[in-house]
């Protein structure tokens, strides 16, 4: 968690960057602008990280107490000594040993900053490559950036195919692109308590959210609101093991997992990241998102359809989290009706909700847990066999918790949503977080969170940290059998018999009931009795007045 000083610093940085960048590129729509800005933020980060490591090495080379010390007494003059230091600083292995991306001279931010004005026409620039200086022909600022990105990919195989090298193709004023480089140059990568990774990671995430808002419905394809991601991560607590998202978008669940682990003094190295994404540009965004944070990842060989080209067929993950497209139609083209994933029934062609759910279960380890965001219809629909699949999931004791969410949480849809939490093992055991879980077999926790949150603007709702804690704390208390009590209107623990009585419908409102006490402090039952009596009196008074009015009108000669 950031303190007040850090948050103020980040907020000011956000406002400055977003306002300035919008002034520079007014001609681009959000879907184009997103890749322009985020690609440059990535380039700035890897270059800054390289410079930080370079400064560390220089200090080591000149420190007599360090193993890397280069003794000036071994050289005839200072020029030779400085040349040797400069040569050592270009040693690739020094950077790779700390998982720092090697950045060739042509891709270093200072090179872009020094030359973006020079190449607005065209220029031949001297570039160092493998110890030799050669001239390259650069035709535009876009060409300069693409050349830098290509050089980074060549020198870092992990990034092959990840970077979006399309700046040359942009139909924009090259001078504006140069000004954008100057703007991003003002992002400070040093702060008294925030690291460069913290700062640029925050900037990257902020821009993802802003672009999702700007793109509206389309933006929801790559971005899940942070509050929802935080809630699922906080409830599942992915401290150790394999984390998988089969519809990862820009990788929000992985970022939040890292932040959660760091906040609780864990090690991100204890977690292995696996993801899949169909959209190529979104796949690239996710990979850059991980690279900026130094998170190792496996997103498969390529962007691919989760149903027809599973990139992780043998994976059994400890934690599975996803926000797939709601109510996705025609998802099963090319999918075998007897696919081994459909253990609990073949999902209908017209809706992929239970296809996502069963795909995630298929990839879940024996002690694993999953959190899946779905449309509310998944909790009650009986269309095309969905009710039978839901019944099978309940009878096989896979459903652990259902959370009903408030409306207006999403930028891309107004469809009411819920979160399914499933696990393959409800027996008493020790969770990855160290929590001692009790036997929860044949029990399901229902949480109705529809009244939580606040309106952050005219159209979007958000959760406060207190809201997230309220939901997460009651879930963990229930799992541990410690200080848990049903709360009318909010949470209820139901058994299989209770759910059978409700025809296997999982809507939390059916189980938690209404609050006993209204906001004014009056008991709900008392308030209903009072209001019913008041309404009866008002009807009676209405009838009396109607008779009086008719009598008066009759005296004036009107007949009824």
UniProtKB/TrEMBL annotation:
InterPro entries per UniProt: D12N6_MeTrfase_N (IPR022749), DNA_methylase_A-5 (IPR003356), SAM-dependent_MTases_sf (IPR029063), T1MK-like_N_sf (IPR038333), Type-I_RE_MTase_Subunit (IPR052916)
Origin organism lineage: Bacteria, Pseudomonadati, Pseudomonadota, Betaproteobacteria, Burkholderiales
UniProt cross-references to Pfam families, sorted A to Z: HsdM_N (PF12161), N6_Mtase (PF02384)
Domain N6 adenine-specific DNA methyltransferase N-terminal intervals: 13-184
Uppermost EC category: transferase
Name used for this protein in its record: site-specific DNA-methyltransferase (adenine-specific)
Keyword entries, A-Z: Methyltransferase, Restriction system, S-adenosyl-L-methionine, Transferase
Family label: Belongs to the N(4)/N(6)-methyltransferase family.
Residues annotated as domain DNA methylase adenine-specific: 196-519
Keyword Metal-binding: no
UniProt-listed PANTHER family: TYPE I RESTRICTION ENZYME HINDI METHYLASE SUBUNIT, TYPE I RESTRICTION ENZYME HINDVIIP M PROTEIN-RELATED
Membrane spanning stretches: none
Annotated EC: 2.1.1.72
Reactions it catalyzes: a 2'-deoxyadenosine in DNA + S-adenosyl-L-methionine = an N(6)-methyl-2'-deoxyadenosine in DNA + S-adenosyl-L-homocysteine + H(+)
């Amino acid at each position: 968690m950031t303190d007040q000083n850090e948050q103020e610093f980040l907020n000011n940085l956000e406002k400055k960057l977003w306002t300035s960048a919008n002034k520079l590129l007014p001609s681009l729509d959000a879907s184009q602008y997103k890749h322009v800005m985020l690609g440059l933020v990535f380039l700035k980060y890897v270059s800054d990280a390289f410079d930080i490591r370079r400064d560390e090495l220089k200090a080591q080379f000149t420190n007599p107490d360090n193993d890397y010390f280069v003794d000036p007494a071994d050289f005839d003059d200072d020029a030779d000594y400085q040349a040797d230091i400069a040569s050592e600083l270009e040693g690739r292995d020094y950077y790779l040993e700390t998982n720092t991306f090697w950045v060739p001279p042509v891709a270093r931010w200072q090179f872009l900053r020094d030359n973006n004005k020079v190449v607005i026409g065209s220029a031949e620039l001297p570039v160092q490559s493998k110890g030799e200086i050669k001239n390259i022909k650069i035709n535009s600022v876009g060409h300069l950036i693409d050349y830098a990105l290509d050089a980074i990919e060549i020198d870092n195989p992990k990034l092959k195919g990840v970077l979006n090298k399309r700046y040359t193709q942009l139909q924009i004023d090259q001078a504006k692109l140069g000004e954008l480089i100057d703007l991003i140059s003002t992002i400070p990568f040093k702060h008294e308590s925030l690291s460069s990774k913290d700062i640029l990671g925050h900037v990257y995430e902020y821009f993802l959210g802003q672009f999702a808002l700007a793109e509206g419905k389309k933006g929801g394809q790559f971005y899940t609101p942070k509050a929802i991601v935080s809630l699922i991560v906080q409830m599942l607590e992915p401290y150790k093991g394999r984390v998988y998202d089969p519809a990862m978008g820009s990788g929000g669940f992985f970022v939040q997992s890292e932040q959660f682990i760091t906040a609780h003094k864990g090690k991100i190295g204890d977690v292995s990241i696996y993801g899949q994404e169909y959209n190529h540009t979104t796949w690239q965004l996710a990979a850059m998102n991980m690279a900026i944070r130094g998170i190792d990842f496996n997103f498969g060989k390529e962007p691919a359809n989760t149903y027809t080209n599973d990139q992780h067929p043998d994976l059994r993950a400890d934690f599975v989290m996803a926000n797939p497209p709601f109510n996705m139609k025609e998802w099963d083209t090319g999918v075998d009706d007897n696919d081994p994933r459909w253990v609990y029934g073949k999902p209908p062609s017209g809706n992929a909700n239970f296809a996502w759910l069963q795909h995630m279960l298929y990839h879940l380890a024996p002690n694993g847990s999953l959190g899946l965001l779905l449309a509310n219809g998944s909790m009650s629909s009986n269309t095309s066999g969905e009710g039978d699949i839901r019944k099978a999931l309940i009878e096989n004791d896979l459903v652990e918790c259902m959370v009903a969410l408030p409306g207006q949480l999403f930028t891309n849809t107004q469809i009411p949503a819920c979160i399914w939490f499933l696990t393959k093992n409800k027996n008493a055991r020790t969770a990855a977080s160290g929590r001692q879980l009790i036997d929860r077999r044949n029990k399901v926790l229902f949480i109705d969170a529809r009244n939580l949150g606040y309106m952050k603007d005219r159209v979007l709702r958000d959760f406060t940290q207190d809201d997230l804690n309220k939901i997460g704390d009651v879930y963990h208390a229930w799992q541990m059998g410690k200080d848990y009590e049903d709360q009318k209107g909010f949470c209820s623990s139901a058994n299989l018999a209770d759910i059978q009585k409700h025809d296997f419908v999982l809507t939390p409102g059916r189980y938690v009931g209404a609050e006993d006490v209204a906001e004014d402090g009056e008991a709900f039952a008392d308030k209903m009795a009072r209001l019913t009596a008041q309404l009866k009196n008002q009807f009676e008074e209405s009838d009396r007045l109607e008779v009086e009015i008719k009598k008066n009108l009759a005296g004036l000669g009107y007949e009824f």
